[in-house]
Amino acid sequence: MTRRSLLLSCLLLAAVSLAGSKSTNVTEATLWFEQFSGEHRILLNKVVEASWASNTDINQENEKAELAARLQLSQFMLSKRQEMDKLFDWAHLGNERLKRMFTKAADIGTSIVTDEAKQTRFGQLRSDMIRIQSTATVEHPDTGEPIPLSRVVSLMASPDVSEAVKKALWSRWRDASGRPVKQMYEEYVDLANEMIKEAGYANFAKYWQSWYEPKEGQDFEQVMAELFNGLLPLYKELHGYVRHALMQKYPASIFPPTGHIPGHILGHMWGGRWDDLEPFTKPFPNEPQIDVTKVMREKNWTVRQMFEASQDFFASLGLGNMTDTFWEKSVLEKLPGVDMVCHASAWDFYTDKGDFRIKQCTEITGHYLAVTHHEMGHIQYYQQYEKQPVVFRGGANPGFHEAIGDTIELSVMTPGHLRKLGLLESDSESDEFYLNSLFLMALKKAAYLPFGYLIDNYRYKLFKGEVPKNQWNSEWVNQRCQLMGVSSPVLRSEEDFDAGAIYHVVANVEYFLSLLLQFQFHQSLCQAAGVTENFHKCSIYGNSAAGAKLKALLESGTSLHWEEALFKISGTRQISAKPLLDYFAPLQAYIAAKNKENGVSVGWGNNCPPDDWYKSASPSRQ
Ligand SMILES: [Zn+2]
C-alpha cells in the first residue's frame, strides 16, 4: 500500500465512522477519485489493447481476450460505483467539477449487471455481428469469385459497372451480412434493454440519449426531428436534381412511379453518400474538373503522405503533431494475410504517454483523404484532452467527436486548399466552378443528412420496443422511403435485415448531429479567421485565432456540458441547422431554379413503391 492510499484509507475510515453518514468532504473525495482514476485508466488500457488486437487480427483467441478484459473492467466499475455510493454523498459535493467527475464515474451503463453470463453474451453478440460484417463476401455476378465489402463498395461506386450488376450486388451484400445478424440483433436489443433497466433507464434508447445530457423537460428526439425538418427543403431539391440526372442515364423502367430513387444507383451501398455520381451530375460539366483521386494517383501520393497532409493542417492551427507512437503503431493499410475490421477508427490507449492510433484500410482516393481527416480529428481530440481525468476524456457529446475531423475536411476540400496541396491545377475563380465544388460537397454531406437521421431514429424505435420484431425490416424499408426518398431495387421481406448490413447500426455509430455541428464549427472558426460570407470558400489553414478556439473546445473533453463547449467555440448553446443551410445556400438557390426549369417536381410519395410495381413488368425488377 502506498503512503498516499494509506492516508486515504485513514481519512475515509475517519470520515465514515465520525460522521456516521456519507462524506461530502472535498479533500477526501478528491483523494479517493485520484486513486480510482489511476486504476480505471490501467483497466481501460487493457480493454483497448485487447480490442485493438482483435480488430487488427480477427480470431477467436483475440476475441476471447477482449471479452475477458471488458468483463474485468465492468466488474471494477461496478465495485467502485458501490464503494463511492457507500462512502460519499457525491451528489452534494461542494465542488462542481468534482461532482461532475463523480457523476460521470457513476454512469456505468450495463456494467451495473452482476450476472457474468449476461455481460459475456452482450459483448459476444456485438463482436459476432462486427465479425460477420468484416469478413462477409459475396459472389461477383459476372465472374463468380467471392469478393469482400471493399470490392463491392468500389463496384457500386464505379460509373462503368452495369445497373444489373449493381442491383445484384445490392441484394447479395444484404443477404451476406444483414440476414445472418438478424437474430443476433434481436437478442442484442432485448439484452441491452434488460441490462440497462437495472441502471434505472426505461430502455437502451433512453440511456443512449442520456449521453447528450438533455436538460430537464427537453425531448431529445423532438429536438432532432425539428432540426431534420429544417433541413428537408435543401435535401428535397438535391434529391430532385439528382433523380433527374439519373433518369437521363438509366432506363425509365427502373424508376418507380412514387418518385423514389432506387437505392442501387446512388454510387454507395446504402445510398448515404452520392459523391461518386458527381462526374455525370455536376451542374457545369465544362468547368475544370475537381478530381482529387485522379491527381493523387497521377502524382503517386502515398498513404503516409495523406496522413502527413492532415497532420500538417492541424499543426498549422497550433494543435501540434502526432506522437511518435502514433506513427509507429497505427495500422494505416490493410494488413496482408489476416482478417481485420476495415471500418476506419481512431483509438485512445489511455497510457498518458501519447499512445493514440488509427486503424484504416486506406486507399489512395479523395474519399479516403476525407476519411483520414475524420480519423485524425478523433486523434487530435484525444491528444488535446489527454491531461483531463479519465472520466472527462471523451467528446463533449458523441456528435462532437465525430465532427472535428469533418470540420477540417470542409477547409481542406476548398479549391484554395486543394491547390495548396497540389491536388487541383485549375485557378478558376468563376461562380460556376465554385457551384460545382459546392455541389460535390452537397453530395457528400447534404445527401447524408436523412441517412444519418434514419439510422438514429430507427434504432431508437427498436430499442423503445415500438416495432414488433416481425416488422423490423419493413420498418427500415418504409422509413428509408419516407425520410430519404430512396427505395429498394428489389422487393424485401422479413427474412431480410437490411439495417443489419450497415456497420454503423451494429457498431452503434451515430453521425446525424455531427453533420450539423461540423458546419456550426466551420462557420465559427471561419468567423474567428475574419471570414464573414461564402463559407464554402473558407479554409482556416494556418489561422491561429481559429486554432485557439478549436483547441479550447478540444481540451475541455467532457468536463463541460456540451452546451458550454459549444458556446466556447460558437457563442451559442444551441445546435442549429442554419450554418449548414447558409453554407449550401448558393447551391440550393441554383438547383431549385434548375429543377423548376427542368419541370422536376421535388419530393416523393410517403409510401414505398407498391409490391405490384415490383412484380409487374420486366423480370429484371424482381
Ligand atoms: Zn469517427
From TrEMBL:
Question: Annotated Gene Ontology MF terms?
Answer: carboxypeptidase activity; metal ion binding; metallopeptidase activity; peptidyl-dipeptidase activity
Q: List, alphabetically, the GO terms of the cellular component aspect.
A: plasma membrane
Annotated Zn(2+) 1 binding lies at: 374, 378, 402
CDD domains per record = M2_ACE
User: Entry cofactor note text?
Assistant: Binds 1 zinc ion per subunit.
- Family matches, as PANTHER family: ANGIOTENSIN-CONVERTING ENZYME
Give the residues the record marks as binding chloride: 212
Task: Return the PROSITE patterns for the record.
Answer: PEPTIDASE_M2
Where along the chain is Zn(2+) 2 bound? Answer: 374, 378, 402
What are the annotated disulfide bridges?
Answer: 342-361, 526-538
* CC cofactor: Zn(2+)
**A Pfam family reported for this protein in Swiss-Prot or TrEMBL:** Peptidase_M2
Taxonomic superkingdom: Eukaryota
EC number of the protein: 3.4.-.-
Where does the record say carbohydrate is attached?
A: 95
Q: Which UniProt keywords apply?
A: Carboxypeptidase, Disulfide bond, Glycoprotein, Hydrolase, Metal-binding, Metalloprotease, Protease, Signal, Zinc
User: Which species does the entry assign this protein to?
Assistant: Macrostomum lignano
**Leader peptide range in chain numbering:** 1-21
| Name of the featured protein | Angiotensin-converting enzyme
Q: Where is the active site?
A: 375, 504
GO-annotated biological processes: proteolysis
- Name the family: Belongs to the peptidase M2 family.
